[in-house]
Amino acid sequence: MVEIAYVPSGIHALPQGAAPDSLTRRERARGALLGLAVGDALGAPAENLKPSEIRERWGRIEDFVVDNPAGTDDTEYAIFSGLLLARFGSALTTARAETAWHQWIADLDEGPFKGAGFSERGTLENLRRGLAAPVTAQHRHAWSDGLAMRAAPFGVYAAGRPAEAARLVAIDGSVSHDGEGIFGGQAVAAGVAAAMGGAGPAGVIGAALSVIPMDSWTARSLRRAVIAAPAGERAVRSAVVIGGYPWTDLAPEAVGLAFGAFAAARGEFREAVLMAVNMGRDADTTAALAGALAGALQGESAVPERWARAIGPVRGSCLPSMAGHHVLDVADLLTPDDEELTP
Questions:
Q1: How many Cβ atoms from other residues are within 10 Å of residue 294's Cβ?
Q2: I want to staple 265 with a disulfide (CB 3.0 to 4.6 A). Which of 99, 211, 272, 308 is the partner?
Q3: What are phi and psi of 250, to 5 degrees?
Q4: Is the pLDDT reported for residue 15 higher than 50?
Q5: pTM reported for the whole predicted model
Q6: Nearest to 334 by CA among 96, 13, 26
């Protein structure tokens, strides 16, 4: 059963959509993580661009715009968290998460470490100085979307249990994030968990809001985006984006844009991902989040075959220790006892 406490005022009018009734946990899990990787690869070229700059370069992005598309830190960190969950499940603790950060990232020769965000760099600096969690999360960008980008595996693992997904992602996030950074990860994890359990789009949004403080920046941003969604892409962006702010990887902004795209598309995969991409800002992350939500809702078959074929094992360009892992293998690890879930 899906733990949906309520659907907040102003969101009840969102069409419930038609989530497939007979999808198994594994089909939804593969849809969520493949959707994340596809969104990441589609959005990477548009990262940090304005919609006007996207139009000037490519018109409207409707497909991959590079010859050799690949995921970024979003996909590689999602694999990292997925492997962590596959090892510990609900027995995950802050100490175990911190140890994994040391073993798989901080204590290794990282090479060029391309594509890492400010939150990850700050966390690694603190770990290498000998600090322990949650002090490791006290750095200059603890409210980034770096936890949200790796939150989908927690929703996959805790299928139909948004509160448990939110609990677990906060444990992982305690190493690297604080405040709004944690809330962003919890909203995404709970939304994916609800979709994994068979909730429709409104239920997914309600689950996300049910696990974070109603007066938080993340919750306000998410509500504004969803309410603006019927008016389309420009309205969602105007409702959420913090104009003039120098960083685009703010958790409240990225999560709001992703849920706005998901709501505007009524959970339809292709439309949700492309809307997230074409809004620019932290486009790889917003498209990855929208792809994870819609992929969990609609399953692996909703991901266009051409896009799915482009996703191979990650290259380790950000996390060398993750090189060779494929998101679909992680999805299978997180659903060892595949079964159909109904709300």
A1: 33
A2: 272
A3: -80, 130
A4: no
A5: 0.92
A6: 26
